[in-house]
Specification:
alpha+beta, Phosphorylase Kinase, domain 1, Transferase(Phosphotransferase), domain 1, Jelly Rolls, 7-stranded antiparallel β-sheet, 39 helices, 23 strands, globular, ATP-binding, Serine/threonine-protein kinase PknD, Kinase-like_dom_sf, transferase
């Protein structure tokens, strides 16, 4: 241990001691964990201690501290990690135990709202280790470290083991592990290094009775941690050494701490996680996290106002059959369709939730739930306001959002053929509408224009096909605001009257929320009025300028984002939202901006799919808690074909998870939005995630941002010099990464001889990254001979199995050299057309280029006209044959546009088009800005 100078003891556990130490070689502080001296002679505990270090070293996740080095030479047994400043969760909980009065700061830190994101991060880490086949077996507040900068990490992997490892049985045999009867169970808060693996207080009942550990034993420990977060106390605290009679009932969190205002559903989650019977617990950590999602997303508390029966006429003001086409022509599939029509007698306010269930047969015929304003409904104008139309066909459920009789949004998803009923939940809260079917989010819509009192309207053919309708209202929604009067004018489109009252309220309440809210709504009023009159929308910006520096400052940027959105200035819209989030991250109005981001994501999925990727990235970075598990699956499916077209996703076979650094990098690559790359680079560097670092350098090179590339390269050189571990894989991979980066730098500078020297010294996978980047540069710069030689060298040194990865580049070279014979042989042998080519694949485009080289223009047009997706990249490439306008590319995301320009240029070269034609695409490619903002 000569390299390390121990500074002070940080903590002591069942097997080890953790010290703050100074690393003399790297001149930095580290955390050094060594086996306790009184246990160092025990070979089994030494083995378990080293196993702990190796398991932690194999796991790469933000919630796990990476391992720098492991030493087991001679008597010294220790390993080192980054030192994270902070405190344990136990320390935080202990600071409030049995205290009746808390400081404001401590009350905020230990609130249920503050604890939930921390608990979700803990669960995310446990979900990750379970996916890797690892059980922690000693989860407790003492082993949760809360960093000063928001880090939440799980430490102490001494009890961790692989789920199906033989060591489970060996532990029983070697430690004399015996079956503990219920009467012999005692409790303590320290890990027992001998008979029992884990901390008894946090062990599941079956573990204390001798059963093997499982995912459900970790879930039990998570449940206890959640219970403590909710109640600030332990569910069955006993004096040390006292037995726990399981017959005693455990109080629910609500009963244990009624003053904490714990939502009943959250209390139920904790109780389910700590059920004595493992069968009654959550089946997985993923299921536990899914149950937490509504609470993480900040859903309101609702109370039941009324339950309406569709069979009781007393609930309804109108109750009669109607011809659907008369009132809702957009919905009727046949002009002769008659439906039962019901309009509620009761009026609901602006915050309402409607819940019911409908049969599959009813949905096949179509079911409508509408919210017409009372004034229009009383006049028989039932189509006014918002409504939802539910329909299904061919095992696909569709939900349409209707406004004033016009469909403005439609979402569809597949359904299980055997499903007989659907549970519907519609929430209208102020200016936001969310629609769930079987807890799956279908619609999220925000309208900044206020709505007045509304009624409930039901349209259905068979009354037997719908359950009773539960009407819930948000607690506190009945409070009347001084803004209600101008809101009413705005809802009636009386813009001048609304503006006059908003100004009056703004001036009457200086410094208060009513003032800045009135100014924001004044801006929305003027923006709507200008838009309706066909004026210059940018005039509305000055109204939002008045919010600058006020107590409602973030709303300045939200308002400007609305102006830019309606004006079609997407980049400026994003810039405005980012300014608000960067300048006021803790402002009370920031959740409002996060809601707006979510709305824009779902809205762009429906209207501007290229914009959706940017909003996905922003939400992942800023508000990942807003995306539920089901939405993650939906978005992954949406991104699937782009994933197949992304080199680093094909090389690195690790599954692309939605909430991951790899997904953030993936979206940065496709959008050209590189703002978050420095943080991703730092994260990958700190975790020693070499694959991520490789991918990041590839993305930076593809973006063309030489300044960022140079900065990352300098940081990498320093980082690799600091890492000096004898016989370590880190050294080898670090050296390979440095050579790879030097090769990319040489390619950027057109120093091809040096590039070849560096790239030839790295593994084939890294060569493939360089080859892909070089191919774009070589064909655009018309330096194909150099690229061809580079390609041939890599091909000659690669294995037969790896040859398939360079076929696309070989075909490109053959086409460029007009070698029809070789191009045809390579295409027909490796990508035969009769096997069905995927239209977004590279091979599909190359076949089109081959046909172009034969001179058969009509065959080329026929080839690209086969594309099923008329606005997909391959279909758009075919447009360059007859059209020199680049307007049709505007709907593409950044990388799609860049790639389409390259392939269009290549196709026109193969088609022997005049130089001035293909030069248009070449220059457009070269002139593309190297980042999202330019």
């Amino acid at each position: 241990m000569q390299r390390y100078e121990l500074i002070r003891l940080i903590g002591r556990g069942g097997m080890g001691e953790v010290y703050l130490a100074h690393d003399k070689a790297c001149s930095r502080r580290v955390a050094l964990k060594k086996i306790r001296e009184d246990l160092s002679d025990n070979p089994l505990l030494r083995k378990r201690f080293l196993r702990e270090a190796k398991i932690a070293a194999d796991l790469i996740h933000p919630g796990i501290v990476p391992v720098y080095s492991i030493c087991s030479d001679g008597e010294s047994v220790y390993y080192t990690m980054p030192y994270i400043e902070g405190f344990s969760l136990k320390h935080l909980l202990k600071s409030v135990w049995q205290k009746e009065i808390l400081s404001k700061e401590l009350e905020e830190k230990t609130s249920v709202k503050a604890f939930l994101p921390i608990f979700d991060k803990i669960c995310a880490t446990v979900e990750y280790i379970h996916s890797k086949g690892v059980l922690h077996r000693d989860l407790k507040p003492d082993n949760i470290l809360l960093g000063l900068f928001g880090e939440v990490v799980i430490v102490d992997w001494g009890a961790a083991i692989f789920k199906h490892a033989k060591e489970l049985q060996q532990e029983k045999d070697e430690e004399g592990f015996s079956s503990y009867g219920q009467k012999n169970i005692c409790y303590s808060s320290m890990t027992v290094p001998g008979k029992i693996v884990g901390t008894p207080d946090y062990m599941a009942p079956e573990s204390l009775l001798g059963a093997e550990a499982s995912e459900k034993t970790d879930i039990y420990a998570l449940g206890l941690i959640l219970y403590q977060m909710l109640t600030l106390s332990f569910p069955y605290r006993r004096k040390k050494g006292r037995k726990l009679p399981y017959e005693d009932s455990i109080l629910s969190p609500i009963e244990m701490a009624p003053y904490r205002e714990i939502p009943p559903s959250l209390s139920q989650i904790a109780m389910k996680a700590i059920a004595v019977d493992p069968v009654q617990r959550f089946s997985s950590v993923q299921e536990l996290r899914k149950a937490l999602q509504p609470h993480l997303q900040g859903e309101s508390e609702w109370t039941t106002r009324d339950i309406l029966s569709t069979k009781d006429r007393k609930n309804w003001k109108y109750y009669e059959p109607i011809l659907l086409s008369r009132y809702f022509p957009v919905l009727a599939s046949s002009p002769a369709q008659w439906y039962n029509f019901m309009l509620s007698d009761m009026e609901v306010n602006s915050s309402v939730r409607v819940e019911c269930s409908v049969t599959k047969s009813s949905v096949q015929e179509g079911v409508g739930i509408f919210f017409p304003p009372s004034k229009e409904a009383d006049k028989g104008e039932f189509y006014c306001g918002y409504g939802l139309w539910f329909s299904s066909q061919n095992n696909e459920l569709s939900v349409s959002l209707i406004k004033n009789g016009i469909e403005i949004q439609k979402e569809s998803q597949g359904i299980i053929p055997q499903q007989s009923r659907f549970a519907i939940s519609i929430e209208k809260s102020n200016n936001k509408i969310t629609v769930f079917v079987d807890q799956i989010l279908f619609i999220l819509h925000i309208d900044y224009l206020p709505s007045l009192g509304e009624r409930i309207e039901i349209i259905i053919q068979d009354l037997q096909g719908i359950s009773n309708i539960t009407i819930l209202e948000s607690i506190g929604a009945l409070r009347v605001s001084c803004l209600a009067v101008p809101d009413a004018f705005l809802a009636e489109k009386l813009y001048d009257q609304a503006a006059r009252f908003y100004r009056k309220i703004r001036d009457s309440f200086p410094g208060r929320k009513e003032s800045y809210e009135a100014q924001f709504r004044l801006g929305v009023t003027l923006l709507t009025q200008i838009e309706e009159q066909g004026g210059d929308l940018m005039q509305a910006l000055s109204t939002f300028d008045l919010l600058h520096g006020s107590t409602g400052a973030p709303l300045e940027y939200l308002g400007k984002a609305l102006v830019y959105q309606r004006n079609g200035s997407f980049v400026e819209e994003i810039r405005s939202l980012l300014l608000a989030l960067k300048r006021y991250p803790q402002h009370p109005e920031i959740p409002r901006l996060k809601d707006h981001l979510c709305f824009r994501l779902y809205d762009s999925l429906h209207k501007h799919r290229s914009e959706a990727l940017v909003f996905m990235l922003l939400i992942l970075w800023i508000a990942p808690e807003k995306i539920g598990l089901r939405e993650e699956e939906r978005f992954l499916e949406f991104l699937h074909h782009r994933q197949q077209s992304t080199l680093f996703c094909r090389i690195d076979k690790t599954p692309l998870q939605f909430k991951s650094s790899k997904m953030e990098l993936f979206l940065s690559f496709w959008t050209g939005f590189t703002l978050f790359l420095p943080e991703l680079f730092q994260r990958a560097r700190d975790l020693r995630d070499y694959q991520a670092l490789i991918d990041i350098f590839y993305v930076v090179c593809a973006s063309g941002n030489k300044e960022v590339f140079s900065q990352f390269a300098e940081d990498l050189a320093i980082f690799v010099d600091e890492v000096v571990f004898p016989k370590s894989l880190h050294n080898q991979r670090g050296e390979e990464l440095v050579l790879f980066v030097q090769g990319l730098a040489a390619l950027q500078n057109r120093e091809y001889r040096q590039a070849k020297e560096f790239i030839s010294a790295v593994p084939f996978a890294l060569q493939l990254y360089a080859l892909d980047l070089f191919s774009l540069q070589a064909f655009i710069d018309e330096e194909v001979k150099v690229f061809s030689d580079f390609l041939q060298d890599i091909y000659n040194s690669a294995s037969a199995e790896d040859h398939k990865h360079v076929l696309v580049y070989m075909i490109q070279v053959s086409l460029w050299n007009q070698d029809l014979k070789q191009a045809y042989e390579l295409l027909s042998k490796n990508f035969p057309q009769d096997k069905g080519l995927i239209e977004y694949s590279e091979a599909f485009v190359l076949w089109g280029c081959y046909l172009a080289l034969t001179g058969d223009r009509s065959a080329v047009k026929a080839h690209f006209s086969r594309c099923q997706f008329k606005y997909g990249r391959s279909a758009l490439i075919g447009k360059c044959i007859d059209d020199d306008s680049l307007d049709y590319l505007e709907g593409l995301v950044w990388w799609e546009k860049k790639k389409t320009l390259f392939q269009s240029y290549f196709l026109l070269r193969c088609l022997h088009a005049p130089k001035e034609r293909y030069e248009v695409y070449r220059q457009a490619y070269i002139s593309m800005e190297n980042s999202f903002f330019g």
